[in-house]
Amino acid sequence: MKKNAKQSIVAAAISLFNTKGFSGTSIRDIAGKANTNPANIAYYFDNKHGLLEYCFTAFFEGYIKEIDRGFTLLDQGAAISLKKIAENIMSYQFENSHLTRLILREVSIDSQVVREIMSTYLAKEKFYFSKVLERGMKTKEFRPHSSNYMIIQLKGLLSMPFLNTHYMAEVLHVFPHEKYFAEKYTKEIFNWIDGVLCNHHAGKPFAAIL
Q1: Which of 47, 75, 150, 183 is 20 to 30 A from residue 134's alpha carbon, by CA?
Q2: Of 134, 110, 114, residue with least CA distance to 122
Q3: Where are the domains of the chain?
Q4: Distance CA 5, CA 44 (A)
């Protein structure tokens, strides 16, 4: 058994789930692409659902760590913290673009695994976002807003490039797999934070862009 068999299986599964869909991908398909024995998939993950669950967990463990890193800056200001969170998430999703696309698509489908993800990782995400937004509104750094509606807008900004890659490339002629895009788009999210959330004084945002 190759030492990297597990990683090869995961990479093959992500690729096939993205192109053929979860239901349209078989264990043999994954084993063939990973150049490994189907028994290895059972050894590491039990079955195809176990493999998908592993992908969910791997993605959200890293995702929450990136949010937490930005959250630690909250005492420096709500906008600084939120911008760092957004920057970290964009960088993480860009570096894991194929996994991100898979997870964002699958999390929209109602299932037991998704409900578990919502009650753990996505509940943590909401906690972090809400705390930053509430702090900003309490200190008057942010305008009064509904935290839930601001979270909807922020998550839309963060997820859209990875959910609609074909639309972006074919219609908008923007290519989210390029590093330039991640840097440019992150600045646009900063502009949204400054323009929509932040209070302004003398025509300038209350919080400086990082």
Answers
A1: 183
A2: 114
A3: 1-46, 53-205
A4: 9
Name the average pLDDT for the chain: 91
Contact 78, 138 (CB under 8 A): no
Residue 175 confidence (pLDDT) = 83
186 in Cβ contact with 154 (< 8 Å): no
The C-alpha torsion from 132 through 138 and 140 to 146, rounded to 10°, is 70
For domain 53-205, which architecture applies?
Answer: Orthogonal Bundle (1.10)
Q: What is the pLDDT of residues 191-204, one digit of tens each?
A: 999 999 998 753 44
pLDDT tens column, 1-21: 455 889 999 999 999 999 999
Residue 30 has pLDDT above 80, yes or no: yes
Adjacent-strand bridge partners of 204? 201
Cα radius of gyration (the chain): 19
Cα–Cα separations (whole angstroms), residue 143 to 63, 75, 146, 197: 27, 18, 10, 6
Residue with tokens 């323009």: 195
